[in-house]
Amino acid sequence: MTGGLQAFSLAGRVALVTGGNSGLGQGMAVGLAAAGADIVSIGPGNPAETAAAVTAQGRRLHAIAATLGQGADYAGIVAESVRSLGRADILVNNAGIIRRADATEFSEQDWDDVIDVNLKACFFMSQAFARHVLAAGQRGKIINVASMLSFQGGIRVASYTASKSGVAGLTRLLANEWAARGINVNAIAPGYFATANTEALRADASRSREILGRIPAGRWGEPSDLAWPAVFLASAASDYMHGAIMPVDGGWLTR
Q1: How far is it, in rounded angstroms, from Cα 161 to Cα 150?
Q2: What count of other Cβ atoms lies within 10 Å of the Cβ of residue 45?
Q3: How would you classify the pairing of strands 38-42 and 14-18?
Q4: Among 87-101, 156-170, 195-209, 228-242, whose mean pLDDT is lowest?
Q5: Mind telling me the catalytic residues?
Q6: What is the C-alpha to C-alpha distance for residues 49 and 5, in angstroms, rounded to an integer?
Q7: What is the pLDDT of residues 188-247, one digit of tens each?
Q8: How far apart are CA 137 and CA 247, in angstroms?
Q9: What angle do CA 242, 247, 248 make, to 5 degrees?
Q10: Which domains does the chain possess?
Q11: Does the predicted model carry a pTM greater than 0.85?
C-alpha cells in the first residue's frame, strides 16, 4: 500500500458544492477546504459564513448565486467555476428541499418543486460536470447526497422520499456509465442532522424523542460530521469505490 495520508489530500483541486452556503453543504465545503481544495459554492443565500470558514483554511471560495431546478444553466455554472478557479475536479450534489403533507393532500406543486431541486438538478449538474471532465481528459469525483429515505419510506414527505430514492438509483446508474472513464460517482446518506430541513422535527418534542431513541449515537448529526466522509469520497483514497451509498447516520440503519 502506498500514499499514506497523502491519499486524502485535495491540494490543487477545485470542488463545486451545491447548497454550500449553509447546513450540510457548508459542513462538507469546509471539510474539503481543510483537505486542500478551493471551493465553488452554488445556490441562493449569503455565502459570507462559508467563505470565512473556507478562507480560514487558506483556500479560495467563489460563490455562484444560481437557483437550481427548472431552467438552471448547469453548463454555465461549470464554465463559470472553471473560469473563476481554473478547474473543476469534484462535484458535491447537496442542494435539497423538502415539503411535508399527508399523501392524500400532497400538491403537484410540492411534488414538482422537490423533484426539480433534489433529483433533476442532481442529474444535470452531474452531466455538465462529467462533460467538462471528459473533455479535459482528467479524473473526476461526484458525491451525491442521498438520505435515510433512500432506504426507507418515511411519512408525509412523498416527493422527498421519491427524490432521494431516485438519487440512490442515479448514483448507481452514473457509476455504471462513468467508472471506466475516470469518474467516481458515490453518495453519502446522512441520517438525522440538525439543519433547516429538520427544524420542524426537532421542534416537535415527541417526534424528536422518537428519533433520538433510535439513534445509537444518541444525538442529532452536525454538518461537520459530514466533512471527512466527503473528503474520503473526493480523494484518491476512494478511487476503487463506484456506486456506493455510504450512511453517515449515527447508527440509525442498524436499529
Answers
A1: 7
A2: 17
A3: parallel
A4: 195-209
A5: 160
A6: 29
A7: 999 999 988 788 888 888 988 999 999 999 999 999 999 999 999 999 999 999 999 999
A8: 31
A9: 125
A10: 10-245 (3.40.50.720)
A11: yes
Which grid coordinates belong to 48? 459570507
Residue 11, amino acid: A
Amino acid at 103: A
The cell for 173 is 446508474
